[in-house]
Amino acid sequence: MTGIDPRRLPEQEVEAAPEDNSPGKERRESEQRFARLSRARYSLSRLFFNFYLLAMGSFVGIAMIADFAISTALQGITDDYAKRFMRGTIVLIEDELQRYPRHQWEKQIKALDEKFAYRLVLEDLDQVLLPPKQREKLELGDIAIDSHRDIMFHRIRGGDKVLVVGPLSPDLNPEYQRAIPLELRIRLMTWTAIGLGFAVLVWIWIRPIWRDLESLRQTARALGEGRFETRAPAARSNLFALLADTLNGMAERVQKLIAAQRELSSAISHELRTPIARLRFALEMAADTDCRDERQRHWKTMEEDLEELDNLIDSSLTHARFERERPTLNLTSIALVPWLEEEVDDLRILAGQLAVEVDLGHLPPNLMARLDRKSMPYAVRNLLRNAFKYAKTRVRVSAEVQEGQVQIHVEDDGIGVPADERERIFDAFTRLDRSRDRTSGGYGLGLAIVRQVMEAHGGHASAGESSLGGARFTLSWPG
After folding, report:
1. What are phi and psi of 400, to 5 degrees?
2. What is the pLDDT at residue 62?
3. Region (Disordered): which ranges (predicted)?
4. Are 167 and 152 in contact (CB under 8 A)?
5. CATH number of 331-478: 3.30.565.10, 3.40.50.20, 3.30.930.10, 3.40.605.10?
6. Burial class (CB in 10 A: 0-12, 13-18, 19+), 5
7. Order of strands, edge to edge, in the sheet holding 405-412?
8. Distant-in-sequence, close-in-space partners of 184: CB < 8 Å, separation ≥ 6
9. What pLDDT digit, counting tens, does each position of 59-91 carry?
10. Counting CB atoms within 10 angstroms of each CB, which of 137, 261, 262, 320 has the fewest?
């Protein structure tokens, strides 16, 4: 019941191509299949008739079963009412016959039959065919009823003649029967009106659904063709409102991921050129010199470039992993003071001649903080590495708790960050112009990873001005 018209799909190829299991064949088949499905569309008429026939057929079936059940349940009540209604008439006819000799009963019953709207006849008791229970009533002198033929039977006193009254219904009486019985005509008119009314209601209900389905199909087709800026219009039916919002959210997410991947690929390609060019130059210089010390210097330069490439790839993969999907955090409560001191001590060797101060006096000594021990070190260590690059003489690490938020501050006495750059600096591959040198330039990924980690923790990272004269970076998250 999809409502897709298969006639709108192109015909299948008659001749099969030679079997080919190469990836190129699979890609071509996938593209052809997508092209065929893209040209298909939802058929409003098929969708309407499929739903209408299913709903109307189910409704008629249920109505017929209900009518049969109700008729069966009320059959006894109806028969009893009809018998009480006709008892007086039958008794009067019987009394009228009793006034005449038995051989005149046929003549008298014919005369009476002309005065009634239903048939009156006399039959022999042996000729009457009835179910056993009704036969027993007839032989006892009671009124027997044939419900299917709508006929009543009564045995005349003092003989074996049976008065047959009916059919009582005009539709069953040959004298009043028309081409189409009244009951059938009423049923046909009723069901025709119900069918037409139901068709109008189904059309009114199915048309916005068809429009929403067609809009969603066109949106999905555009997304499949790579137009990720396409969005599904607002749904006319509440049935598809959530689906349209979900599809738009997915499209927006895919668009951001692809844009981020393109930006990442472009930035990485740009960043790879410099170390690769230096590697090529150092390799050529090492091949052209016979001086051992000169070759050693070039080999050292190449090792540094290879290490730079390795760091770039590692940082890019880490950023891409966080960008692709928010990591599943395993939050545990740990003592913040010893954990932070351990993180600083692990990187103290990178500080060189810099003075590294750790001021945790504003924290309670037994403070427990909830964090992910796998991802949070990325944030702290990247801030420390960043501070070691730009500091002149001092780096200070401090922490505090404000309004239920745990805050870690990393400050330096370096060049600082201009106020208009403090938000943009957390974007991937964003570097200040004055930092583009080999010793402190970096790749612009460290602070981007810091922000990703903090957002995963439900917090944020920010940059400001330090009292030491340089930059102050703050990590803040619910403790």
Report:
1. -160, 170
2. 81
3. 1-30
4. no
5. 3.30.565.10
6. middle
7. 355-359, 394-402, 405-412, 471-478, 460-465
8. 171
9. 778 877 877 776 666 555 666 767 777 788 888
10. 262
